[in-house]
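Re: the request from the purification team.
They wanted to know what the chain is likely to look like in 3D before they choose a buffer screen. I agreed to run a prediction and write the result into the notebook, where they can find it.
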Amino acid sequence: MDVSAGAAWAVIRNGESRKGRFGCGKATPYDAEMAALARGLKEVLRDLPDGVKDAALTSILGAGSGPAQMLSVAACATVRPWLQQSEERRIHMHWTPGHRGVYWNGVVDRDAGLATAEPSSEVSFALARQCVTAQAYAAWRDDMTKPNYRGRSNMLHHSQFDCCKHTAANWFLKTAGKDNTYFARLVRFTSGHFPHGAFRERFEFEGNRRCWCGECAVESRDHIWFDCELWIRKHRPPDDELERRRRGEHRRDALDLVPPTPPGMSSVEHFLQDWRDSPVNIDQVAEFLQLNPAAATFQWLELVDRAYADRDGGAGETVNTYKADLHTRVRRDTYEGWVRRNPTCPVAVFNEKYARVAADKVRARFGLPDEEILSLRVEFGMSVRAARELQAKERAGARGADSDG
């Protein structure tokens, strides 16, 4: 992307004007505007009287993490000495959003256009990022037209690939786009194709099919979402929906949530439409999976297999039965108490705190080696990154204690 930008400034005081222009190299319009504003501030401060009193500082002096951060830093460095001379000194800025009818706006616009011809090898970070994003998006679009990349299924019609959203406008990306594991669980659970008893029964796979609550001989997604008391729920499904399911009206198998796709509609389009028509809010399902990290996972299905094998074999309490209860009954009761004390606390905070406590309980009760603590914390809901950082911090503290000793 070969785009040159220019900036211009004009200072008017007591009927006299002073102006200038300079090239910004390859930059975005926003970069050029901020550069002109920073330079204009510097010029204004050259001849301001000592007794200026006005309102508050604004955007150019807010050196955040945006694309014009370095310009803001430069503007702050310019303004700070003048402001420090008196506590009463203030700067007030007026942003003129339009160009029509403002003479000096037209003047600096023309000067900025002339400044674009001035040679400069500078490339702003914001423009470089825009170029890289555009190139990656173009490459993705190119790949999406190839059957070897997108497959040959009916999940999306060919025409719909042009409408694919790779940004937060896509519900799945907005909800779970930063966590691959959670994204996979969300897709599996909402589509009904996740590891559970009904899945094993449908495809005749070996293994336990019962729910850990003991009330369901063949665990289904409907049982997990509507009936099972083991899991944490912040929202109760609508009573009329529960009653219809108990009477058997419109009852669907867990794997047959979406009826046959109508002609002319893709599977994905039909899937999302079916959820929109459902009395169950899909956002509540997403929240349910966040509150219950073990639900709808392969690890949970395997853990219940082992826990039932231990219980049926008369082994009493084992690490498997203990962990199964920590994932469900204990977690549910702990969360209810936590919410009473911290009603506005984010789910992620509870997950990390509970994962740390639950992992420590398992290790202490069954004498597990310290090397397993990281995997235990991740299993109970702590992110891999947070678990590794905590482990590194604990090891550093242990080394410090040893050296002090």
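For the purification team: The chain is about 55% helix and 5% strand.
Please add any questions underneath this entry.
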